[in-house]
Description:
The chain is an alpha/beta fold. It has seven helices and five strands; from the N terminus they run βαβααβαβααβα. α1 packs across α7. It is globular, with a radius of gyration of 17 Å.
Amino acid sequence: xxxxxxxxxxxxxxxNIEQSFGNKTIIEAYKKFNIDTEYDEIYKLYPDSKINxxxxxxxxxxxxxxxxxxxMYWYNAPSLLRKWFEDVLEHGYAYGSTGKxxxxxxLIVSLTTGAPLDAYKEGGIQxxxxxxxxxxxxxxxxxxxxxxxxxxxxxxxxxxxKDKPEEYKAMIDSLEKHAKQLADKINA
Length: 188
């Protein structure tokens, strides 16, 4: 019996990953799971926003699972990731009658928010749930014939205090749990 290893394309869409606490910690914790992963740091690769469409499509072609990792900005993905969608997921490649390149690949969104997750509810300060804000990604998966595997979210990154050891440890624990949930979704 031949068992195929899952290949992950992990698209990191953080404008300044070196300064990141949350996204950087999630990625480092995820690496400990030793999943066959290609890391695609689009802000480092394309500081001029000129995306190499063919190179990105080749990476997608090799993947079984696609992960979008980003901090949520203004209730959406950062601008370069949105441009990446527009450029890379072209008609005839990702969707349309001949666009079957992504068929049956899994899509997972891994995101962080500044506000605590309990602020994301109807009647809350953010008015809507994270699920509501990720519906566009779900539809992206549908249009591209991908399998929507949902999202993993960690919130409260603006509000915890790094010099309070108990808050710092609790946030690290949350981010490591996030990485574990992501690995579990990939391996499901």
